[in-house]
Amino acid sequence: MGTPRLDTCVPVPIDQEELETLVDKAKDWAIMHGAGMRPMEGYDPDGMRFAPFVLLPSTFPKSEFDRAVRLQPIINELFHKVAHSYEFLFESLKSTLEVDPFTAKLFQLYETIRREGTAQALSLGLFRSDYFPHSAEDNILKQVEMNTIASSLAQIATATSRLHRYVLSELGQDDKLEQLPKNEALQGLCGGMLRAWEIYGEPKAVILFIVEPVTYNICDQRFHEFEIRKMKPQVTVIRRTLTEVAAQAKLDGPNKRLLVGKYEVAVVYFRSGYTPDQYPTEAEWDARLLMEKSLAIKCPSIHYHLAGTKKVQQALALPNALEKFLPDTNKAGPVQKIFTGLYSLDMDSLGDKAVKMALADPDRFVLKPQREGGGNNVYGKDIVDVLGKIQHSKERSAYILMDRIVPPLQQNYMLRPGRGKATYELVDVVSELGIYGVVIGDAGTILENKQVGHMLRTKLATANEGGVAAGWGALDSPFLF
After folding, report:
1. In CATH, what number does 341-404 get?
2. Which residue intervals define the domain Glutathione synthase substrate-binding in the entry (predicted)?
């Protein structure tokens, strides 16, 4: 019995002449409405290509979409509370800290802040919870991961929702537009940053974006700046790398205001700082510590960052773990339902059992390290190669094992930029839903907590990874049925 299939929102294949015209229109629409990226090959700071996307919105079960939307404020609350529990973070990560130098360095920074203090108790979370519908369980959503740092693609997802409205209209399918949910992810995330800016309370203070030295996903970042200016014209956004912050930043006065050059910073928004290569020297770590100590509201703070690690997510799936943070069963129950099997690979009997399961039937699992940014997970026979080498070593504690989720198949036209001409073909794909959330609070109080939009990311059914900026996936939007 094969993987179940979903019907497309319109009959395919589309007539070839109509298809070619529509593809040309759609790719131009994408570029002209901010669904673009800088080319990774032959980088040109003045160049722009459309971000990979699928031509048609992909069908998605409405009941599961609605459930994920309802659930997001509870997910926000859960990870906010987890982030403020030193004991849970330490117990979850202690084995990983012995073998993963990057996570250990982050935790060391966290302990320095606990010991020496921070001038700002509030944190801003711009989260995204990612899901696949699991075909083996009637397409019930199962969580792939929780993103607590640099939750990207809000702008391009918002633009793609509008693109697909245009495409359906061009196909004469206006009667189906009501099945495309409204998406204001960009406005929602920018609204979260502006709410934190208002709480900070200094009208001349700026919002600081921490960025990579070279940004390929430029539309997604710049449109946040443009939207902030549109929503509140008096607010300035500045962009700096961690290296530039190290050279330009200082703490001012007893309240430890963060100054970057001539600017006082109200909010620090990290779009970089989640992989080891983004800290090439100790100067970048010093810059991160300086910001953590400051009065600026961080997005994310170091404890929010750690709460999003794979190992913490695995620990939350253990029996009775959720109830520590969500004692209301009406909240804990629905969250427990989205977890798939998550297994520790620590050097104990449970870890030994998980290793044996993975080596015996690797196609059932995904091996996940403590890394963000795409391209890090291990699948299929590669699990045997990787885990076989470290099964008797503490190094295995740097990973978790997850049951592989099998989403339903459907067909779509995937468009990718090429040399002078876009490439497109009708292919089997699977889709991953992301729900964005905003939370602001401290250890005792949550001031803001809401769901603010969605993203659909689609990949070839034969592909393991799905990151758009990393080159594996394509942007999409849900057609609810």
Report:
1. 3.30.1490.50
2. 205-307
